[in-house]
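Task: sequence design from structure.
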């Protein structure tokens, strides 16, 4: 792997792309943001798997697309049947909760298995490119539909008021190929001249809000304020939150929503305060095979993520510090489930639907490649 500096792109730009020499895939190393913008070149299956596991790439749609390119990288070395199946199995095992990972790999395997091995590598590159393009189109559509929710609230508020949106984790362009899911309506509203302001949950323990959402909103000038994870309920009680928009890693058949740990508490507070709680959901994140949220596997991560914090020192160096007694154990559930009854709507690429079994069953399945 090599890294080289590059100009940070804007919100519509990509978080992943094929290298100019057409043999590798390049990503933004999200473990180094916001302190350093570094592009990392992935050349092998193992490098793609590690990028997903180590969260150099993260966010449900982006890990799916990275895995698709990982299949292409694997086939460059061996395009036989066993190698294809081994690549799919390895990549799928890297993170358990986001169903997009499995979905993207199933798309790839389904299309590649019938081909002769000699035809597979070129086909895999084209298919991964198509998945990346589909993600951009999907998120742009989510932005168009979600804009109406923000515009409706803006129209109800006194002239000159700002619409305050709370979001959790990073369901932004960095979590996708571009635009983001939860951020797409925000970017769209900002571009159309609506006055928006985003409350950014820090999102302990990995701080995707502080490190990533704040970074990408700042790049394009969307007004935002970082808040402690525990502050959201208080701000809602004060009338300082007009709506919540979050992303999701998997939506069950009954409309239960898995997302970054802490999402459920925001949904409870929003429900209590009468604040609409919306979930941006590309249909590739809907999993009709799980009946309800209790059946969604929740990733357990290393407690070290909880027991330490990493940041930049005054001298400009990155440093990791311990924040608990050395003998204190930690438990690090990476996701939680918000019951469908707390979700006001799902913002999909096909429009806004309620989080109900019937509405979800009526949605088209994601665009096949
Ligand atoms: O652990 P992460 O950073 O991959 O978790 C990401 C989230 O929870 C996002 O909200 C979700 O993947 C939706 S991304 C559009």
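Answer:
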């Amino acid at each position: 792997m090599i890294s080289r500096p590059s100009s940070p792109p804007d919100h519509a730009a990509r978080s992943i792309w094929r290298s100019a020499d057409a043999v590798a895939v390049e990503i933004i190393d999200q473990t180094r943001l916001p302190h350093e913008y570094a592009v990392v070149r992935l050349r092998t299956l193992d490098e793609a798997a590690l990028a997903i596991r180590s969260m150099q790439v993260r966010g449900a749609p982006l890990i799916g697309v990275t895995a698709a390119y990982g299949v292409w990288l694997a086939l460059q070395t061996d395009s036989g049947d066993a190698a294809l199946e081994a690549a799919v199995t390895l990549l799928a095992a890297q993170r358990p909760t986001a169903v997009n990972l499995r979905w993207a790999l199933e798309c790839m395997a389904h299309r590649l298995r019938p081909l002769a091995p000699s035809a597979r590598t070129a086909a895999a590159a084209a298919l991964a490119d198509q998945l990346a393009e589909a993600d951009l189109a999907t998120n742009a559509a989510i932005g168009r539909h979600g804009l109406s929710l923000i515009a409706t609230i803006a129209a109800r508020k006194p002239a000159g008021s700002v619409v305050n949106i709370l979001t959790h984790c990073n369901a932004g362009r960095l979590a996708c190929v571009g635009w983001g899911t939860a951020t797409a309506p925000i970017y769209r509203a900002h571009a159309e001249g609506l006055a928006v302001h985003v409350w950014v949950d820090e999102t302990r323990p990995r701080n995707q809000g502080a490190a990533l959402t704040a970074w990408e909103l700042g790049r394009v000038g969307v007004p935002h304020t970082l808040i402690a994870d525990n502050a959201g309920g208080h701000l809602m009680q004060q009338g300082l939150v007009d709506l919540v928009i979050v992303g999701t890693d998997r939506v069950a058949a009954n409309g239960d929503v898995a997302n970054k740990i802490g999402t459920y508490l925001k949904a409870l507070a929003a429900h209590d305060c009468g604040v609409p709680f919306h979930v941006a959901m590309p249909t590739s994140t809907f999993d009709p095979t799980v009946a309800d949220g209790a059946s969604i596997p929740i990733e357990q991560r290393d407690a070290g993520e909880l027991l330490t914090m990493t940041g930049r020192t005054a001298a400009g160096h990155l440093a990791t510090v311990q924040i608990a007694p050395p003998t204190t154990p930690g438990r690090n559930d990476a996701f939680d489930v918000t019951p469908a009854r707390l979700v006001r709507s799902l913002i999909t690429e096909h429009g806004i639907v309620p989080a109900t079994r019937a509405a979800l069953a009526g949605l088209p399945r994601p665009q096949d490649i």
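The CA atoms of residues 99 and 282 lie 11 Å apart.
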